[in-house]
Amino acid sequence: MKRVLLTGFEPFAGASLNPSEQIVNALKARQIEGVELHTAVLPVVFTESSELLRHLIKLHNPDVVICLGQAEGRSEVSFERVAINLDDARLADNAGRTVTDQPIVEDGPEAKFTTLPVKEMVAAVRAEGIAAGLSTTAGTFVCNHIFYAMQHALAGTSVLSGFIHVPLMAEQAADFAGLPTMTLDQQVRAIEIAIRVAAEVWSA
Ligand code: PCA
Fold first, then answer.
1. Which reaction is recorded as catalysed by this protein (predicted)?
2. Which residue, 7, 19, 72, 158, has fewest beta-carbon neighbours within 10 Å?
3. Helix, strand, coil fractions of the chain, as percent rounded to 5
4. Closest ligand 1 atom, CA of 44?
5. Are the C-beta atoms of residues 102 and 148 closer than 8 Å to each other?
C-alpha cells in the first residue's frame, strides 16, 4: 500500500465553494487500489496552512503528497511544475492578512520544482478525455505558499510531492461570470487518475 496525503482548501475571498475541498471529500469516500489515502482541508491562511501541512506529513508519513487548490480562469486541470519563494497576495487571506513581497523561507532557493510525475499524470488524465496541462505558475497566494513550503520541507526525501490547480465548477458560474468551469465529476476523476499514476511511479 502506498500512503497518499491529499489536501484541498476551504473557500476563500467570500466564495461559498472551493472545488478542491469537494474533490477531497469525494475521494475520501472512495477506495483506490493499492492506496491508503489520508485527506485534509487546509485553511486559506498563509502561516497556518503550511504549519498544518507539515504536521500532517509528520503524522501520516506519506509516500506521496498532492495538494489541490482552485484557480479561477483555468480551463484545464493544471499540474504545477514550480513553486517560487514569494508571498505576494493581491487579496486578504481568510485571517484578513495581506502578505506582500515576503520570502516564504528566509534565504531559501528562489524556486523549487515538483517531484510528481506531472507529464505522465497529464497524459493519463487526457487519455480519459479530461482537459489537463502543465503550468509554470502557481501564483503568489496561499497555494504557491504551501507548495513551496512543502517542497522545501521534503527536499532530499523519497516523498513525491506537488500541487495541482483545478478549474471552477459549474455551480460557481454565477459568482464568476464568463470564466471556464469543469464538472466536479471530471475533476474528481482527474485527481483519482493522478493519484494512481503517482502511486505506480513510486512503486516502480
Ligand atoms: N486557491 C488559492 C488559495 C486557495 C485556493 O484554493 C490560490 O490559488 O492560491
1. Release of an N-terminal pyroglutamyl group from a polypeptide, the second amino acid generally not being Pro
2. 158
3. 35, 25, 40
4. 4
5. no
Helix (H) or strand (E) holding 113: strand 111-113
Q: Is 61 exposed, middle or buried (0-12, 13-18, 19+ CB in 10 A)?
A: exposed
- Three cell numbers at 133? 496541462
Q: What is the DSSP letter of 85?
A: S
The residue type found at 73 is G
Q: Give the number of the atom of ligand 1 that is nearest the alpha carbon of residue 145.
A: 9
- Smallest CA separation from ligand 1 atom 8, residue: 143
Buried b (16+ CB within 10 A) or exposed e, 29-57: eeebeebebbbbbbbbbbbebbebbbebb
Whole-model pTM above 0.85?
Answer: yes
The domains of the chain, with CATH numbers, are: 2-203 (3.40.630.20)
Interval between CA 70 and ligand 1 midpoint (Å): 5
